[in-house]
Prior knowledge:
This is UDP-N-acetylglucosamine 1-carboxyvinyltransferase. By secondary structure, the protein is an alpha/beta fold. 28% of the residues lie in helices and 23% in strands. The protein has 13 helices and 24 strands. The chain has helices at 24-33, 50-61, 87-91, 104-111, 130-139, 170-180, 196-207, 239-251, 267-276, 323-333, 354-359, 405-417, 437-443, and strands spanning 5-9, 15-19, 41-43, 65-68, 75-78, 113-116, 142-146, 149-153, 162-164, 186-190, 211-214, 220-223, 232-233, 255-259, 279-282, 298-302, 308-309, 312-314, 336-343, 363-367, 386-391, 399-401, 421-425, 447-449. Helix 1 (24-33) packs parallel to helix 7, helix 5 (130-139) runs parallel beside helix 6 and helix 10 packs parallel to helix 12 (405-417). The longest helix is centred in the middle third of the chain and has 13 residues, at 239-251. The protein binds uridine-diphosphate-N-acetylglucosamine and phosphoenolpyruvate (PEP). Uridine-diphosphate-N-acetylglucosamine binds at residues 25, 98, 125, 127-132, 167, 169-172, 193, 323-324, 346-347. Residues 24, 98, 121-122, 324, 405-406, 433 line the site of phosphoenolpyruvate.
Amino acid sequence: MTDDVLVVHGGTPLSGQIRVRGAKNLVSKAMVATLLGDEPSRLFDVPRIRDVEVVRGLLELHGVKVSDGVEDGELVFDPANVESASTDEINVHAGSSRIPILFCGPLLHRLGHAFIPDLGGCHIGPRPIDFHIQALRQFGAVVDKTPEGMHLTAPTGLHGTKFELPYPSVGATEQVLLTAVLAEGVTELRNAAVEPEIIDLICILQKMGAIIKVHTDRVIEVQGVARLSGYTHRPIPDRIEAASWAAAALATRGRVEVLGAEQADMMTFLNVFRSVGGAYEVTDTRPPRVGSPGQEGGIRFWHPGGELRAVALETDVHPGFMTDWQQPLVVALTQARGLSIVHETVYEQRLGYTEALNKMGATIQVYRDCLGGTPCRFGRRNFKHSAVIAGPAKLHAADLVIPDLRAGFSHLIAALAAEGTSRVYGVDLINRGYEDFEGKLSALGAHVERP
Ligand SMILES: CC(=O)N[C@H]1[C@@H](OP(=O)(O)OP(=O)(O)OC[C@H]2O[C@@H](n3ccc(=O)[nH]c3=O)[C@H](O)[C@@H]2O)O[C@H](CO)[C@@H](O)[C@@H]1O
Ligand SMILES: C=C(OP(=O)(O)O)C(=O)O
């Protein structure tokens, strides 16, 4: 742990330009989808993050040849020789990411069996996989949970089914999509998640030859096909990373242009950002004309001076305010005048990181009640899932230990906004979802160093 520490000299506004590439929460799934094709696939703008390494490792273990393409960030996947891998080899990746659960359908289609290691991901609630397992069983999979991981077979193949999600889970929706596309017959999924990353995954599957209809009211219908080809795809940019840098600009009273950020995927965040008192400008996103270098677009975020305003917000499924935007934004809310209220309705335990902010001088109280909005699933279950943030607070330096990905980035923002020198331990965790965050911090003029 001692060499996994970043020394942050706070108090300098972040200023400059950085670029975001393909979304962590799409790219990893796009990589899994390559298993479904009988031809190579090509994915652009793949960020160098830990989750991508984990999925690449798992694909390679299963015989997919992964190679670099011509462009920086381009990967080519050849699934011609998909084969079984040993449980020991697969278990090397146990606990490292949530994506392995999405290998179930594709491996069952390609091999007739699958082994899934224990999942990782952020510790922000119990994160059960009951919807995944129920759906897979309905498709015809036999699921056997053992102490070493999960074994699956499909003795009579996978067949289309009707399934209604108790909650619009992103992962379970992707599980159904990745299984239904090659299943025999029609699948109807009700109460599906419709996050932009899911729509982009549907675009990829459609490019491969899938027939997927997105109806109104969260209903998705998939008509299974006998084979899928490869795809060529440029993924949607990472809207969580973009919002994280926006929050960092606001908390440090700085100005950051996030090249690649897409307005359409961030509308809800932009509304809140403006309500708090942040300013932004969507920069030119027109595609370059043939023969001209063109201008890469993005969104410029800045603190316009004066005081920030408290807001009340509630995290929700798309098109609501993303839960993954919550932690970075709360740091900026510690600087807003008045009482801000944040009601976390997606995860039971995503407010633990506020203790560290309080240690730095913030005043944040967490409550078990559903504050400021509609009662949610957690209100009667005794989870501290609402926060009241009193501001503005003068943040001071502290020694911090990063608990998870987004909380980790929020600790970093707090240290940058605070006066004095903080030591942030466990920063390598941030590499799971933020490409070259240290390089980007330096590009934005942050004073950070490895001891
Ligand atoms: C790799 C990835 O894309 N991660 C994202 C994905 O996570 P992930 O796909 O894991 O999140 P889900 O949308 O599935 O989870 C939402 C809620 O549903 C619950 N649930 C989910 C599945 C299940 O079988 N049973 C169940 O009860 C979860 O505990 C949680 O309370 O969507 C989340 C919600 O936008 C984001 O925060 C994560 O960044
Ligand atoms: C919760 C997150 O990711 P994961 O599902 O990979 O843990 C996140 O990206 O904020």
